[in-house]
Amino acid sequence: MPGSMILNWIAELVPFKLPPWSPVATTPVQAPAPKGQPTDDWNVLLRAVENRLQRSVAEPADDTRSQVLDCVAALEHLQGALQQEVGRRHRLEVALLEAQSALARTLAQLQRTQAGERLALHLATHDPLTTLPNRSSFRERLDRALSPDTSQRQALAVMYIDLDGFKPINDRHGHGIGDEVLRIVALRLFHAVRAKDMVSRLGGDEFACLVADWQDREQLSRLACKVFNAIAAPMSVGSVRVTVLPSIGIAMYPTHGRDPEQLLHGADAAMYRAKRGKSGYAFCESRIGV
Fold first, then answer.
1. Residue 158 falls within a domain, yes or no?
2. Annotated catalytic sites, by residue?
3. Which partner for 274 in 72, 75, 264, 282 could form a disulfide, CB atoms 3.0-4.6 Å apart?
4. What's the predicted TM-score (pTM) here?
């Protein structure tokens, strides 16, 4: 049988589209298929070529028989190579999936670490009950605002706020009600000031506000009245209705101090004067020469 006939048979078989069922027994092989040819069809096609060639050697000349058998061996070798390639591809896919899983775990761990760091920073700088900045955070902000490195220092004022009548609420209704009162006061105080002002819980029933860029004493008086009225409004906690009245002390930079200690001391002294006089708020009396 001439070699050209074998080539013609192969040429006829290569574009051949196998039906869904073929009687040719095949070994399932997951081989990479040529473009447009499904993997299973490609493997079946190779087996069909092999069987066709084997049937063609029934009575040919010896040299043709040898050529055909060489073709069969070559096809078997090709099928083995395809199986090896499939195995290599499978191993690569497994390695890729493992790398993707490792990357996902690393990213998740990084996100948890970053979230933990943010939470730790928040807890270190905020009051856990009211979520307002705590004393250390307030002091850091005040120190930064009055730092000598500040190129253009704004007019600042410190409001020191203490709640009158809070202790009897704790004693009579318990700390659960008292904590809720503090949360309500914090929320009211936060909404009473401007967005650029800072509200802080210093501890216990003491709060502070750093007023930025105030214009005059009258503006601070209006803000103090607004804060007083917001906090003094009756509040309901469950079935309990309570009222607390704030005492507010105000110290202005640079009139009452040019460093954090002077301003805090002046605001604290003014708060006690407002408490004694039941005036709601009072300005610091001591003046620092500019």
1. yes
2. 205
3. 282
4. 0.62
